[in-house]
Known about the structure:
Strand content: 35-45%
Radius of gyration: 18 Å
CATH topology of the largest domain: C8orf32 fold
CATH class of the largest domain: Alpha Beta
Number of helices: 6
Distance between the termini: 10 Å
Number of domains: 2
Largest sheet: 7 strands, antiparallel
Amino acid sequence: MKRDVSAHLVLSISEPATLVFSVAIAADYRPGWEQLRVTRDGAAVEATEVLDLNGTRLHRVEAGTGEVVLEYAATIDGRVEFPGAEPADLIRYVRPSRYAESDSLAPTAAAEFAGLDASSDLLAGVSSWVGTRLAYVSGSSSHTDGAISTLLAREGVCRDFAHLCIALLRGLDIPARLVSVYAPGLDPMDFHAVAEAWVDGAWRVVDATTLAPRGTLVRIATGRDAADTAFLTVLSGQADLLEMQVTAVADVLPDDDLTELVSIG
């Protein structure tokens, strides 16, 4: 499988800012071609790469005032097998986190999924339960909404669906985490977020939105929840996002049987 991905971001910097971008494909890929370029008012700006957990590649930029443009593109030929779970992962990704309040949702998870072991049946059950209770509504949630807020509102976007899946799975003592991805087949095209659960000795994708084939996803960032995986973090200063374009295409868009275990590769 060949996949081509790209991101184009334009920001207005009104106060000198420290920016952290998370748009590059994960370090485990061996891209056939890759380019990342940042400019301010047309002049090149240095982007310092920082390797985070789980192969996440961050790019830190010190930007003065003006218009900052980030251009990223990569081509991936074939698939990659990502590392399994470290002992610390099996602790870190069961704990509650800012956007996945598994301690509060554990009773709901136990009641709804009683009798289901860690298997494809459980993942399909959680995905279906979330997908049938939430409506996908663009712009319906804020950056502070977690799984509980999403469940009460009964609507959200991809990260909200993923947070609720993660909270329910952790409530059942199953390690679960959030992954930001490029998603060939996604419509409308954007950065996408899915959950991963540690089942049957590997990280398995759970995407209750069912908006893109799981087998085509390209990993960007992996973490506890959206706090670890945002495509842009403004550490200091003032920056406003003016424009964003994301593309992701694959030479094959496979069918996606939600009863099968699928891993990102």
